[in-house]
Amino acid sequence: MPLSRSLTLPLLTLALVGLLAMVLSVGVGSVALSPVQVGAALLGEGSNLHQTLVLELRLPRTLAAFATGGLLAVAGALMQVLLRNPLADPYVLGLSGGAAVGALLAMLAGLGGVIVSGSAFAGALLATLMVFGLAHGTGSWTPSRLLLTGVVVAAGWGAVITLILAISPTQRLPGMLYWLMGDVSYARTPWPALILLVLACLLVLPLGRSLNVLARGPMQAAALGVSVRPLEWLIYVLASLLTAAAVTTAGSIGFVGLVVPHMLRLMLGNDQRLILPACALAGGTLLVLADTLARVVIAPEQLPVGVITALLGVPTFLYLLYRSR
């Protein structure tokens, strides 16, 4: 099979599955809509109720879930290449902890909406700068040094989060806990995350061959003409930015960035030219389905989508480890 076809066919399949998942997500709810009714509402036809449900409530949330899942999965795949560690995920360097501290401080101050999202993004960027600065020190950083620094910084953020929760008023705790568990209902608009996801995929696709070589080790990559250090910096900055955008959009949602890259590598191989765009599609689809399940499993109440991804992610990851023996 030609290489271009071997890359295109899985991506088209994942895109089709993702589209079907989004149609299902938009149609499911207290008022069920058929695919025909969903399509009519998207075209500006049908009843005013259907148009309001689709265009103002369900579609923005579905797109936000897709963008968040795609960002986390791509960031996880990049982190695993950078650290050459199959257990690396988008949160391994403490970015989610920094974002959580920023968001919780804004909630503690009685702020909401855009301020909480902006505080979360600022906290994630602060965590990025801290980890990189501490890992770099006076010399160069290595993947193991970066990983260890990230783990220690993440533990520190965890202590600060516990302190904030301990001193927070009782009436503010439910919102804080939902944010920490990940909840797409907090998403204000999906477009910044979607645009960033598309731009990231366009950026990493030309780097696919270099990432394939880097995954084998820096010495082999340097011997084959790859500029190792600039490429590692680019991966770190890009993965951090994607994670910060995802956490800002929907809070801390676990397992997507860890499970999806593993699952795709077992199914499609380890070619980064295929894995990275496939992660964007598969991660988005997974989170859309998880959010749909979170909305309906105990309706009319809703679960945080992070609970669903954890319940699905743990057995899935254990099964993938069993298969990869």
Automatic annotation (TrEMBL):
Signal peptide: none annotated. One of its GO terms (molecular function) is transmembrane transporter activity. InterPro entries: ABC_BtuC-like, ABC_transptr_permease_BtuC. GO terms for cellular component: plasma membrane. It comes from the Bacteria. It is found in: Cell membrane. Its main location: membrane. The chain crosses the membrane at residues 64-83, 104-134, 146-168, 189-208, 233-262, 274-297, 303-322. It holds the Pfam family FecCD. SUPFAM superfamilies: ABC transporter involved in vitamin B12 uptake, BtuC. It is a multi-pass membrane protein. Keywords: Cell membrane, Membrane, Transmembrane, Transmembrane helix, Transport. Belongs to the binding-protein-dependent transport system permease family. FecCD subfamily. This is Iron complex transport system permease protein.
